[in-house]
Structure formats: C-alpha cells, structure tokens
Amino acid sequence: MTDPLRPFLARQAFVLLDGALASELERRGADLADPLWSARLLIADPDAIRRLHADYYAAGADVAITASYQASFEGFAARGLDRSEAARLMRLSVELACAARDDFWAVPEHRCGRTRPLVAASVGPYGAVLADGSEYRGGYGLTLAQLMDFHRPRLEVLLSAGPDLLACETLPSALEAEAIARVLADDFPDARAWFAFTCRDDAHTAEGGRFVDAVAALAGREQVLAVGVNCSAPAHVAALLAAARDVADKPLLAYPNSGERYDAADKCWHGKADDLVGYAPGWLDAGARLIGGCCRTGPAEIRALATWRRSLGDAGKN
Hints:
Elements: H1 6-11, E1 15-16, H2 22-27, H3 40-44, H4 46-59, E2 63-65, H5 73-77, H6 83-105, E3 118-123, H7 126-130, H8 144-160, E4 165-171, H9 174-187, E5 193-197, H10 211-216, E6 224-230, H11 234-244, E7 252-255, E8 261-263, E9 268-270, H12 276-285, E10 288-291, H13 299-312
Parallel strand pairs: 1-10, 2-3, 3-4, 4-5, 5-6, 6-7, 7-10
Antiparallel strand pairs: 8-9
Helix pairs in contact: 4-6, 4-13, 6-8, 8-9, 11-12
Pfam families: S-methyl_trans (PF02574)
GO molecular function: S-adenosylmethionine-homocysteine S-methyltransferase activity; zinc ion binding
Domain Hcy-binding: 3-309
C-alpha cells in the first residue's frame, strides 16, 4: 500500500502542512459570510483559492488542503445548484490545489532540497454542512449508517479528482471517524487519508468522548496514514498527542487553530492568538510527525515553522 507521506518522513523531522484557508481568504478581503464558507469562492473567485495554495507552497508547506471542507451536495443544492454542478465544484477544489502545486514545482529553484508537494482533499464533518458550529459540539443525532450515507458520495467525487490523499478533519467524534473509515474500506480501498479530531480540552473530543479511544479505534486500518488533532487550541495539543502515542500505530499530526475562540452565533473570533512556533517543539516531542496550522493561521506562520524545521536538520528526525 503506497504511502505518499513516507518520502517526506524519511528525510525531515516532520511533514509541514499548510495553514488556514477560509480565515486567510477573509483576511485578504474575501466575503465568506455564507453557509458555504470558503467553498463559496469555488463559485465566486476560484483563482483566489489557487493563489493562496501557491503562497502556502512558497512558504514551505509540503501539503495543501483543498477548499472542500464545507462543500457538499446539500450545501450547493441550497444555492440552487444541481448534483452535476456541485460535483464539478468539488472536483474543482482539488484541481485548483493541483494546479498551484504543479506550477510551483515547474520552477527549478523550488525543487532544491524539497520533495514534490502533495494535495490533500479536505473532508469536513457533517456538522460543517450545518454551518452553525456543530462540528465543535458533535452530537448530531445521526446513526453510523446515516453518516456513512452522507460522506460516501462526496468522497467519491473528491477521489475522482485525483488528490494524493484525503484530509478527514475537524471530526468531533469517534463515530464520525468510524463512518468515514468504513466507507473508505468498503467502497474506496485504494484511498489514503489522515484523520484529525477537534478537541475541547486535554483529553476529550469536541463531542466529549475520550480522544485516546477515538485514536485507538483507527489503529490497524491501513488506509489511515496519520491521526491527530486539528482546529483545537494549541495549549491542548501536546497532552492529547502524548496520550495518543500510547495507542496509535501510525504517525501523529497536529494543526491547531490560533488559540482564539470561535463564536458560531455571531460568526467571529475572540481572544488572543498564541505563538504556533513556540508550541511546536512540544508537539514534536509528543510524537507529531505532521505539523501545520488551522483557523486564523496563515503563510507567515507556515514560513516560521519551515524556518524552525530547517534549524532542526537531520537531528530533528524521530
């Protein structure tokens, strides 16, 4: 079974992921006050997405995560788009990242000391489609079978566009992770993915289950290449990873948000941003082999992580 992450892990301390998509696009002037969030720009301004992917590759990211987090048949249908057009837009999210990657890699000087970057198709949770912050609470009231039925058609479309792997992210519960993992095993045996949970504290997923149990439930699944935490406060990450290391049989990943708190009711962020790079050595010590940023982080943070990684040299490899 081919693992696209292996060449990176063989030569460097960790795989560097990109940073936020939606919040960075907003910072650049995009209007994302829409239930589709960043997926709105797949309709309104796809080139803005491609440019941001390019900026992350230039900052040093080894992986770009596509603008499909909040893209779904249901969400696009609410905008009056039929299934054919919705599928086209979901495929476009992958195509934009691939185009940015291929343009970046076509420049000879960009290849110096680097492995050809990857594209990870974002698979957001069911709660993201509700556009009410449900992914930070979980508890949708859906069965395993219902969650499988929701994710299956979107997975099929995203995989048809040819990403290197899937980023199954901001998952609030072990149940939703199990649903996606079963669909991959049953219907898409050649697909590869990482699974990242959003967590409420040092030990629990957003829905309240034990994080270590969610990680342990994915052990032994060959299609799951890495497992860990995203869109959670940086202060919680080291403890979560340290606990997961005892039950995981695969690399761990961490791409938390800035540490600010999102208020789903008024659609804004509160609090002060943390220093991502200041926390990162603790994540590496706790076992993280994939590190990046989520909401409210940008190319500047990814560039700083790239600089820190270069300072580690071969000594930084686990």
